[in-house]
Amino acid sequence: MDMQTSLLDRLFDTGLLIDTGVEGLYGRSGAFEDVIARFERLIDAYGADDGAEAMRFPPGMNRAHFESSGYMKSFPQLAGTVHSFCGGELDHMSLLQCMEVGGDWTKDQKATEIVLTPAACYPLYPTIARRGRLPAKGGLYDLQSYCFRHEPSNDPARQQLFRMREYVCMGMQDHVTTFRQTWMDRGLEMMAKVGLDVTMDVANDPFFGRAGRMLANNQRDQNLKFELLIPVTSAAKPTACMSFNYHQDAFGAKWGLNLENGDVAHTACVGFGLERIALALFARHGLDIAAWPADVRKVLGYQD
């Protein structure tokens, strides 16, 4: 039995995660959710004085905005769409007959105007673009959303539906790169406070295909993406639990995000994988929260 399956089985046995019969799609217990809520309060404490505008989007986004984002050019293997039955009574009868014989009853469903949100920040850019030009100081936004990535796995840290907490900064290059470095420093400090061993490393997104390999190499060569890695199911291959991304002016140009003086805004974001961080805490300190080290419990606000 590999370490991924072993940890997943133990999480199921204790009820911290709930098996749905689909890899990467899990229910969560109250105790698991409480760990996430407490860690989010720690995030809030670090970001409270920055003055970010809080927004919460649903786990689905406007299909037209999704298409405009270019996501399908880079990550078609991860995308999820929402399809629905759009037929009449005869179509419904055919659908039920198909189900009766074990056929593919989904084949005649049609795409809706909703796709599953791939990253918490994707609905933000068109939202801010509709407001017009950004103020001279730029903008800072606090987001949290369920996200979908189609990558089924028995690794509990690689879920298909998961929550991402993000801060997104828009402004001049120096402003957004300073923001990113600040959160890289904060991320290391936060994880030390909750007793997690971490490393920071340059990274790339999982771009698709031959052209994607060139994009990935460029991303790494320019240090556009860093990840904070924490052992969850493997010490040799730690899991990315935070990411720190500098998009240059790519999103600014794509969405028409301009500063007060007309310059195209640069953007950067920091993302927290909330389920992954909770899993890292359970992997490091054990599945019994009451037995976690006193200093870690104190940081997370547990009363002993």
UniProtKB/TrEMBL annotation:
What transmembrane ranges does the database entry give?
none
Task: Write one Gene Ontology MF term.
Answer: ligase activity
UniProt keywords (A-Z) are: Ligase
EC class of the enzyme, as a word: ligase
In the record, what lineage is assigned to the organism producing the protein?
A: Bacteria, Pseudomonadati, Pseudomonadota, Alphaproteobacteria, Hyphomicrobiales
Record's protein name: Amino acid--[acyl-carrier-protein] ligase
Q: What is its EC number?
A: 6.2.1.n2
Query: What's the superkingdom here?
Result: Bacteria
What CDD domains does the database record attribute to this sequence? Gly_His_Pro_Ser_Thr_tRS_core
